[in-house]
Amino acid sequence: MRPVDIIYKKRNGEINTKEEIEFMINGYVNGQVPDYQISAWLMAIFFNGMTKEERYHLTMVMRDSGDTIDLSGIKGIKIDKHSTGGVGDKTTLAVGPLVASAGLKVSKLSGRGLGHTGGTIDKLESIPGFKTAISKDEFFKIANEVGMVVAGQTGNIAPADKKIYALRDVTATVDEISLISASIMSKKLAVQSDGIVLDVKTGSGAFMKNIPDAVELAKSMVEIAELNNRKIIALVTNMDQPLGDNIGNSLEVLEAIETLKGKGPKDFTDLCVELGANMLDLSGLYTYEEAKEILNKNIENGKALDIMKMWIKAQGGDERVVDNPEEILPISEKIVEFKAEKDGFVSHIDTEKVGIASMVLGAGRKRKEDEIDFSVGIKVLKKLGAKISKGDTIAKLYISEKSNVEEAIELLKEAYEISKNPPKEEKMKLIYEKIVGGK
């Protein structure tokens, strides 16, 4: 078997066999296939795509390049949740305790962020004392006793994906459905959960900018899970504006806590309940309708908040943060306001630019080695459809001495469009489509 023949087949739009895909991926990982040949093959895939079966084989060989995580040591049903990422997306922080309060076990391996804001791990580490580097025994113990645990990813989950993604990043082959699907699902299938709920974002702040592409990606990942006999639900959700109001690590933890107190922004609360209801439905513990009712009740009666407090304490964090978040979390007291320059309606938000604005304040990383400032970020006061007058505050910027405030303000000016008419209702819809598979 020669790499050039496999590249030739894919270049001509033919189907690569399971053995050919294994030969290319394993050969690249062990150094027998050079990066220029893998790059050529990736470019051929970029232009010609892959079949459902090819995507599955690619996913599985990348999954099997490293460790798989056996969750059988955790009693009960385990449903994983994954978001393709966006601005203000802190759903794990609220959804985890919420579904754990209804009897589901949530055991997540999460990563750090590179871009707008920190990842889930960074956000959790803004809580004083919170440990994300925990042993396997601790991981299982906390999951069994509390029902909720989040730890940093091990370095050996789907290493082939890590190596190939780095190559895709420098060869302009990142945004192809098959390659994205295999990248995400190789890591999700490495964790032996009973099912997966995917939150596939679409819009100006998402990787997939339009709804048809996001739906295609969601369906592709659902097909891969089905071929692996894994139960799955994918929701295609709106990222044409930040999710919730707060962007930035401590600010997002604060919002997650407020949400479980019943005081969170409506869009964020609604999405958390929706994701949680689908996780519980997939588990078989409750129907979707029963789950929604229970989750809303557990916000009202404080049961979800109690789980959050237990979880934070179990992982070494200061549980007082749940009762007094603004006193315990590092949140900057220095605030700059971004104001409207004319009257009208907020008709468009370039959400990605809002996210980048938070990054230049210090809430995210441009490079892996950059340090995050937990105390900075943005609180969005005016979202799509809001009627505003000249001089109204659109957003508050929480800044530090190292924040590039001028650049952040300029980015927000570019991000917000103020028009005479409000946007169409479709643009403000929270959930566009639901795809159910393997159930």
TrEMBL record:
SMART domains tied to this protein: PYNP_C (SM00941)
Example GO molecular function: thymidine phosphorylase activity
Residue span, Pyrimidine nucleoside phosphorylase C-terminal domain: 345-419
One Pfam family cited in the UniProt record for this chain: PYNP_C
Gene Ontology cellular component terms for the protein in this record: cytosol
Keyword Glycosyltransferase recorded: yes
Subunit details: Homodimer.
Protein's recorded name: Thymidine phosphorylase
